[in-house]
Amino acid sequence: LAYAQALRRRGDVAYMGPLVARALAFADTAVARDSTSQSVGMRGTVRMAQVVANLLATDPGAREAQERAAQRDLETATRMDPTNADAWAALSVLYVRTKTLLDVKLAATRAYEADPYLAGADRLLFRLFSISYDLAQFADARRYCAEMARRFPTVPSRPQCELELMSVPDAPAPAPARAWALASEVERASPAGNRDAFGRRARLYVAAALARAGLRDSARRVVDAALEMPNGALRDDLAPAGAWVRLLSGDRAGAFTLLKGATDAGRPLSRQQALSFDMWWWRDVRDDPEWRVLQGT
What we know:
By secondary structure, the chain is mostly helical. The protein is built from 16 helices and no strands. The chain has helices at about 1-5, 15-35, 35-50, 60-80, 85-100, 100-115, 120-135, 140-150, 155-165, 175-190, 195-210, 215-225, 240-250, 250-260, 270-275, 290-295. It starts with a helix and ends with a helix. The model has no long low-confidence stretch (mean pLDDT about 90).
């Protein structure tokens, strides 16, 4: 219950911190009394939340130790009970930080197969869609997007996945008007606190549709508007998507400028950043010397 209450205000560290700490204390007690797949898995889930929600000290060693502890609990829970859908779902979130895209998809698939009606099934389906998209497994991506439309038609990830599918290489020529309509739908369906972030991300995929439709100048203007903050700074978390659209629109130099700015003047990518770059967007630039500098190779 403490963990569920913490999730009601995702992103609010001051609110979540004490509740997650309380949940972890309860989980430790539960494991001490009876070490079952459910109790060990719950402790791993809470530990995972501490890492993902940035509730730990900034010390990298402490964060890595908590990641290892969360992964150890969750993997133990799934070995004890391979049908523990909640533990598999939590692993699919944690593996984004610790393993490969294929590991993420396998864990998410195991969760969905074990219980397609578990709490947060809409987020799990979108995770399956996103990883399939990242891995260029577009048939799977379309299948998960269709399932989301059937089961969760009102969540913002439903129009978002349709919008993202407009950008894949084997998609029909995109209709810009449809792309803009989907982006508006994403923004309307988003929680008020996340509306700006969701809207910016959606507009980057509109820009991708514009680039694929041959409207390259328009695509670049949409990218610039989506990335620029009111203080004139850029949204570094969205820079990779913006850089990819720059590539689509024929602006290779602009793409690398965005990537270098997002990685602190060209310093090598972190482990998590490198994972996000292990996808089909970058196939055409992997032999570029500037790309190898970004990768630290």
